[in-house]
Amino acid sequence: MAVRAVAVLASAWWGGRPHRRVSFDAWWADGRVETGVSLSSVMQLRHPADIADAEKAVHDRCPEVGPGDWCDDRGCLVDGPAAGSPWVSPKRHPQGERWGFGAPRYDPTKKPRRLLRLVAGLVAVVLGVVLLAVTQGDGPLALGGLICLGLAVGALFDFVPRGRRWW
Question: Do 4 and 71 form a contact (C-beta atoms < 8 A)?
């Protein structure tokens, strides 16, 4: 009996951003390969500390995407099924293939575009000052002016250099 980890990229339900998921395959003594098994139920070890070591060994031998090496219950490498045997189940994608999820990848070298925030912040400042000046601080329009000024502070908050921030 041997176990291996298989990593795939999947999209998160809350934002669609790709993340790595790992499932486990079991290779039984009769030659069948079962996909999507629970590592703890397959290993049937006596102590919880043993499962942690075996799980670490299986995870360490798993690439970023695709199937890892077969490991026995002690975490040692073993020869698995023949190389031509399929490892793809209906829940997975082919080995090593990367696919887009509709969200652009994060590029740390790219500077954020802040022109829209600058324009919105300046418009909110002008609108807030005009509303406060026209109403002279009385009535519901003055409250709208204060809200506009608060939104302007929030929009322009990022333009203060980090070295000058006291907060």
Answer: yes
* Contact (CB, 8 A) for 51 and 74: no
- The predicted model scores a pTM of 0.48
Of 36, 12, 40, 8, nearest to 21 (Cα)? 8
> For the chain, which residues score pLDDT lower than 50?
87-101
Which residues are bridge partners to 66 per DSSP?
A: 7
DSSP type of residue 75: S
Do the Cβ atoms of 68 and 5 come closer than 8 Å?
yes
| Structure-block tokens of residue 76 | 């040692």
- Give the separation between CA 148 and CA 144, rounded to whole angstroms: 6
Residue with tokens 């994608």: 93
pLDDT in tens, 132-158: 999 988 888 999 999 999 999 988 988
**Domain residue limits, the chain:** 1-104, 115-164
Residue type at 101? F
DSSP string, 76-145: -B---S-TTS----TT---TT-----SSPPP-TTSPPP-HHHHHHHHHHHHHHHHHHHHHTT-SHHHHHH
